[in-house]
């Protein structure tokens, strides 16, 4: 009698286990993995020091308005699309290490404030082929603006961090600007 009861219990348990296994296999789109599978071991902290050249004027602009401003004081409504050089020095002729591609949109109605949405795509050295993505608020009249690094590709998979931007040069006639970027990135690769 006792062995029969035990056998039934065993059978029930086996059935339950089989159901549980089937449900984790069958039609499941999310699988829990060990981070080691993607070699996510030790996070490194790297600082990048770059200059971002927004060339709006002249015959070879790298930054072009795609929507005009609605307000002449705050520039509200303006959207520029850009493919700006990233160099190691403030001099536009210094070594090119990547390109910053994206757009800035003037989204503040009571000050001059941009929404930056851009990728820094590296084209030189160890980080060539990898990119980081910056998405954040940029009140350009402030001396230092902070923007989050929200992720990246290649060596910057699973990256996070922040960028500090300071305007080095601004030409009110051409609207050209050179902005210094200090970017702190935590990354694994
Ligand atoms: C902004 O200024 C320009 C001239 O620089 C003028 O033509 C335009 O009407 C102004 N726009 C507004 C919304 O005031
Ligand atoms: C702004 O750009 C114009 C046109 O290139 C140039 O003539 C002028 O000297 C520049 N101003 C400054 C402050 O660099």
From TrEMBL:
<keyword id="KW-0052">Apoplast</keyword>
<feature type="signal peptide">
    <location>
        <begin position="1"/>
        <end position="22"/>
    </location>
</feature>
<keyword id="KW-0732">Signal</keyword>
<comment type="subunit">
    <text>Homodimer.</text>
</comment>
<dbReference type="InterPro" id="IPR004265">
    <property type="entry name" value="Dirigent"/>
</dbReference>
<protein>
    <recommendedName>
        <fullName>Dirigent protein</fullName>
    </recommendedName>
</protein>
<dbReference type="GO" id="GO:0009699">
    <property type="term" value="P:phenylpropanoid biosynthetic process"/>
</dbReference>
<keyword id="KW-0964">Secreted</keyword>
<dbReference type="GO" id="GO:0048046">
    <property type="term" value="C:apoplast"/>
</dbReference>
<dbReference type="InterPro" id="IPR044859">
    <property type="entry name" value="Allene_oxi_cyc_Dirigent"/>
</dbReference>
<comment type="function">
    <text>Dirigent proteins impart stereoselectivity on the phenoxy radical-coupling reaction, yielding optically active lignans from two molecules of coniferyl alcohol in the biosynthesis of lignans, flavonolignans, and alkaloids and thus plays a central role in plant secondary metabolism.</text>
</comment>
<dbReference type="Pfam" id="PF03018">
    <property type="entry name" value="Dirigent"/>
</dbReference>
<comment type="similarity">
    <text>Belongs to the plant dirigent protein family.</text>
</comment>
């Amino acid at each position: 009698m006792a062995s029969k009861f035990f056998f039934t219990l065993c059978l029930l348990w086996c059935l339950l286990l089989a159901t549980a296994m089937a449900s984790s296999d069958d039609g499941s789109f999310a699988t829990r993995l060990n981070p080691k599978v993607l070699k996510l071991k030790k996070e490194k902290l790297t600082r990048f020091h770059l200059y971002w050249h927004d060339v709006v004027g002249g015959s070879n602009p790298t930054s072009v308005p795609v929507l005009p401003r609605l307000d002449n004081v705050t520039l509200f409504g303006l959207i520029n699309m850009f493919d700006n050089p990233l160099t190691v020095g403030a001099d536009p002729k210094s070594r090119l290490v990547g390109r910053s591609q994206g757009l800035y949109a003037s989204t503040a109605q009571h000050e001059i404030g941009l929404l930056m949405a851009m990728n820094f795509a590296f084209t030189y050295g160890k980080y060539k082929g990898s990119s980081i993505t910056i998405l954040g608020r940029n009140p350009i009249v402030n001396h230092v603006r902070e923007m989050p690094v929200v992720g990246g590709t290649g060596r910057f998979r699973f990256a996070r961090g922040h960028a500090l931007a300071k305007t080095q040069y601004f030409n009110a006639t051409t609207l050209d600007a050179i902005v210094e970027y200090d970017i702190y990135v935590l990354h694994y690769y």
